[in-house]
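Quick log. Single chain, no ligands specified.
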Amino acid sequence: MNIKRYFGKNSREALNMVRQELGADAVILSNRAVEGGNEILAFREEDMAKLVAGSESKPKPSTTLAAESASGPETLVSILSRNKRTVKTAEPLNHEALKQQRNPAKTPVAPQAQTAGMSPVIEMAKPRVQNQARPVNHAATDEKHANELSSMMREMRSMRSIIESQLTEMAWGNIQQRDPVKSGLLRSMISAGFSAGLSRQIAEHIPAQSSEADGMKWLQNVIGKNINTISDEQQILDEGGIFALVGPTGVGKTTTTAKLAARFVMKHGAKKLALITTDSYRIGGHEQLRIYGKILGVMVHAVKDEADLKLALNELKGKHTILIDTVGVSQRDRMVAEQIAMLSSTGMPIKKILCMNATSTGETLTDVIDAYKSRGLEGCIITKLDEAASIGSVLDVIIRERLRLYYVANGQRVPEDIHIANKNLLVHHAFKIARKKTEHFSFREEEIPFIMANMAADTASAKLVGMKHD
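-> predicted structure:
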């Protein structure tokens, strides 16, 4: 077993060294404070498994166990090896034979010996095996010990997670005292709705000795650089193509489709545009788009299945732009997969644009993206921006999933309430509305270490390796 020693200025630095060299599943033997910093002794989890396997393959005699207990305290490996030893079962005693040996006078004499004048012969009864030893089930024993070892490793990982959380809490408590600017910016990001994982990663790269104003400017600049937006409408309205607006129910797909149609008609005219709706499930679902189409002078085609969609697209091949309004269902409904399969099996390049509700939480938005990204997403549109009390969650998810943001919609008016996404204005708006939060939903200074401690084992930040910090 190759035990290695790591020395750092503090526990966090030493743990990072262990994680980088030995991996996330390293076994920590000791963690203590020494002169000048912190010392950690650790080894790989694979070494533990090899050592246990080697000990199990070499059984020790019974004298070795006594030697081990006499030489010093038992180790984890010796305990596991001792439990693997199989004790030989003792043979059952023949009580009848013992009784005859103790009382030879009462033993019956054979008749042949008495008549011939021979010396009496003691005829011993044949021993009858009453309790035959049962064979040991080695497979069941091995499985039992394997389960015990697995349970022990889970407990060790749990203990390591708890220790890391406590160390993270202590580290961020020290940061609050040593660098109040970084702590304040971290609290601002969490209050704006950004996840603790993303906030932590960005806050760790804040330039040292920055003032609060400079730090906030740097913070907004970094977040803005990681939001991918379009520069103008050329990529969607001028280039043309087939665009399908997808998303869960109530997110505003039909209204957004009407807004995009109105912007296209004002720029290119109604003859080059076609509208298709697949919403035949809601009562009067397609009637809303028909009314918008009638106002704009654009024909609306209603389709029910894949065959109807292929037929409609073949008839509209000459159109510059085709907008498809899809039916809204829950992201957990099986109809989502059927809908995506219908759009992907037409044989034509349909670009799917996801409508994301700005009022939803980050967990809900992530669930929505996971449901719709199986066949690829061209980009997204933020809807209901005017109803959201914080928009950090939707920006956080867009950064994590590296989605291209096309438009933002902030009202019901057609076509006024839709705009090309401006990432700098969005980031500024996110922190502006965060300052208006009531004290019930804002974080205090002393609560930040507890929040960061709970995110110590968060693996979602692994998606942010390619973030731009400069």
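Residues 60-73, 83-91, 105-127, 456-465 have pLDDT under 50 and may be disordered.
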